[in-house]
């Protein structure tokens, strides 16, 4: 008798506006990644960077792949978001940032909600979140391009 496990919820969801901005930035700058460090200053805001300009750490956690762009969170910050779904949106006012969207006069923003008990159980049953730069290979197609993981929309 097989045990059916519920489908785990996406760890990160993007609004339509955030997806459109990501597609625009990827068209302008090439391969991208998003990283949430949790550090000081803008550490709680997702940073959108050229993939070639950022080295993913061995313990960084892959939360999903959105519009062919991996979304990682720093290992130390993962402890704070492990039981939450991140909702990524765009707000006006770029501010002073290294993130690529700042030049457009906007910025990505992360909001969170706690997973329900059932969602948390489904995530636990699915095993640990993938870590490190090699984690994105599991989310890549046969042609080497990333495919969207089930991220949903906000």
User: In this structure, how is the largest beta sheet organized?
Assistant: 4 strands, mixed
Quickly name the level 1 CATH class.
Mainly Beta
CATH superfamily: HesB-like domain
Task: Give the name of the CATH architecture.
Answer: Sandwich
What is the number of helical segments per DSSP (H or I, 4+ residues)?
Answer: 3
Identify the strand order in the major beta sheet. 3-2-5-4
Q: Whole-Å distance between the termini?
A: 37 Å
Shape: globular
Find the count of extended strands (DSSP E, 2+ residues): 7
What can you tell me about this protein's structure?
- This protein is α/β, with parallel strands linked by helices.
- It has one domain: HesB-like domain (Hypothetical Protein Aq_1857, Chain: A, Sandwich).
- It contains 3 helices and 7 strands, in the order βαββββαββα.
- It has helices at residues 16-29, 75-81, 117-125, and strands at 12-14, 32-36, 47-50, 61-66, 69-73, 84-92, 106-114.
- The strands form 2 sheets. Strands 3-2-5-4 form a 4-stranded mixed sheet. Strands 1-6-7 form a 3-stranded mixed sheet.
- A hairpin with a 2-residue loop joins β4 and β5.
- The longest helix is centred in the first third of the chain and has 14 residues, at 16-29.
- 29% of the residues are buried.
- Mean pLDDT is 84; it is low at 141-148 and 150-154.
SSE blueprint and pairings:
Blueprint: E1 12-14, H1 16-29, E2 32-36, E3 47-50, E4 61-66, E5 69-73, H2 75-81, E6 84-92, E7 106-114, H3 117-125
Parallel strand pairs: 1-6, 2-5
Antiparallel strand pairs: 2-3, 4-5, 6-7
Task: Please sum up the structure shown.
By secondary structure, this protein is α/β, with parallel strands linked by helices. It has helices at residues 16-29, 75-81, 117-125; strands at 12-14, 32-36, 47-50, 61-66, 69-73, 84-92, 106-114.
């Amino acid at each position: 008798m097989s045990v059916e496990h519920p489908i785990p919820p996406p760890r990160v969801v993007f609004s339509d506006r955030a997806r459109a901005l990501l597609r625009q930035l990827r068209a302008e700058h090439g391969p991208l990644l998003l990283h949430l460090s949790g550090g000081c200053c803008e550490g709680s805001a997702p940073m959108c960077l050229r993939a070639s300009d950022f080295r993913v750490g061995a313990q960084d956690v892959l939360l999903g792949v959105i519009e062919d762009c991996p979304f990682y969170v720093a290992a130390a910050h993962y402890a704070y978001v492990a039981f939450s779904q991140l909702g990524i949106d765009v707000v006006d006012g770029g501010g002073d940032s290294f993130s690529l969207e700042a030049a457009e006069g906007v910025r990505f923003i992360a909001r969170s909600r706690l997973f329900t008990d059932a969602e948390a159980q489904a995530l636990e049953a699915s095993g640990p979140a993938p870590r490190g730069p090699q984690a994105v290979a599991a989310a890549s197609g046969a042609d080497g391009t990333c495919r969207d993981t089930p991220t949903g929309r906000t």
